[in-house]
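Collaborator request, handled under Task 6.
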Amino acid sequence: ESLVRTFTPFYFLVEPLDVLSVRGASVIMNCSAHCETPPRIEWKKDGSFLNLVSDDRRQLLPDGSLLINSVVHSKHNKPDEGYYQCVATVDSLGTIVSRTAKLTVAGK
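C-alpha cells returned to the collaborator:
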C-alpha cells in the first residue's frame, strides 16, 4: 500500500469581479471552486467573514456565489459597498482565497 499522497486539484473555476450597482438592485458575486471533495464556501467583506445564516438579504447560492438582494445604500449606511473575497475550504487540504472584488454602489 503506497503512502505517497497524490496531489488533489483544488482551485477556483470562477472568481468574483468588480461590480457597479445601484441602490435597490440585486447583485451576484460569482464564485465557484473545484475539488473532489466539495469545498465549503464562505465570503469575506472588508476582511471579515459574513454570517449568511441569519442574513435575510444576502445568501450563498449552490455554486458558491453570493447573492445580495436589494442593495442598501444611503449617506450614512453603506453595508454592501466594499471589498469581497470568496474563501473555499476543504478540511484535508486547506483554504484558498479568491481575488478581491470591489462592489461600488452608484449615487443618484
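The cover message to the collaborator said: "The first strand starts at residue 11 and ends at 14. The mean pLDDT is 93. Please let us know whether this matches your experimental observations."
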